[in-house]
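Entry 14. Ran structure prediction on the chain below.
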Amino acid sequence: MWSLLCGGRKALSRNADVKGPGNSFLSCGFHLYSNIMSGSNGAKAKSHKNARTSPYPGSKVHRSQVPNEKVGWFVEWQDYNPVEYTAVSVLAGPKWADPQISESNFSPKFNEKDGHVERKSQNGLYEIENGRPRNPVGRTGLAGRGLLGRWGPNHAADPIVTRWKRDRSGNKITHPISGKNILQFVAIKRKDCGEWAIPGGMVDPGEKISATLKREFCEEALNSLQKSRAEKRKLEEKLHKLFSQEHLVIYKGYVDDPRNTDNAWMETEAVNYHDETGEIMDNLTLEAGDDAGKVKWADISDKLKLYAGHSQFIKLVAEKRDAHWSEDSETHCGGV
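Output, structure tokens:
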């Protein structure tokens, strides 16, 4: 149980190739979301932007240009000729990556659970063309897998741990303008990017997303990988209540990630675990670990400087919890 909760073994990072030479951008790239889907139940995206950027992360490869009006597969484009690219680190055949489609001993079961590998998409069924999965949002200008290990969806998870900001007397602090209580979340600062983000990482084969959420939080915000067995056991006892209580699934589905291709793409599930009284997290010392250089409690507001997609996740949490987000009251209208 412990190995699933607080990092009894090292995860496959944000695809194991992030540790490879010349790929320091990649673990940062996991969080470069821009177009978050409408709703939080995996509603399909209308387009993507980061998934069409060049050069491709960690390389000098440039995608074929795809204009906005030709992103969707429903738009006929007979001359479409995407660049073919799969990174050497993926072709080397690490355990986190699929073989090439052309290999005779590889018969993936797309759109279903394939042994321990989850090939179902959070966005529903995706099409298969010439034996390859087709990006559900549309063209990216790049065929193959790029840096992603799996053909089709590559699943990740983002744990958003929150509490109310309180004064020394334990009273909730309200924002003087919006009049709403101020919510805080555990933020990590990437070693490679130097930017603040939500902890998160890839779902290992056979691993439940709930386990990934717990493990990534432990590794990056509590430095569990460097703890002794006894210390890990104490962490587990304190965190069990937080991660076993009711939680909010903020978003699940396709992510507009610069590593996406026509045949492989990122999906994530962002889940909010809220410590209503603060008693659980107040008894835990935050300590950066794994890919995180720093960790802190950050006040939630529209002034947060996070990856664009992460700001959207955090905004959804604030609205769900009826917490402060903006000094402009109009931004609170309409809910989620």
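Helices lie at 2-5, 26-29, 88-91, 209-221, 229-244, 279-282, 308-320. Will compare against last week's run tomorrow.
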